[in-house]
Amino acid sequence: MKSSQSFPTAKSTSKTVAVSLDGAGSEFSGPVELRRTVPTPDAPQSPAASTTHSDTTSHPETLALQAELRDRLSILLDLPPESIADTTLFSDIGVDSMMRLELVAMVEQHVGYELPEQDLEQLRTLTSIGTYVDARRDCA
Hints:
two-stranded antiparallel sheet; about 140 residues
């Protein structure tokens, strides 16, 4: 019996990169195939994939920041914005360390101060960023 369910497909890109594997100067240089799973247009969207906002984030400025971050991620990852749910882990959609730095810079510009380095690890989703920003706004 055949299933009518549609599954995401892999989008593949080949690039040549130079990567330092450690601080001692060991490097790898050569072609690398990068793969990212992207939803097919006819794939059913799960309720978790909706872009509805978390109940814990209600401040209009925070919601605007989340929308801005979602739009930037959409451009960086070549994904439709609606495929990036508030609760999607950045690591699950291919956000690398450089992209995370860009997101942190956008958050810092929004809040007007540099985020403590020890807080950066907890910023793993749009919801966690919203919760973080709201908690500090409430303390101010």
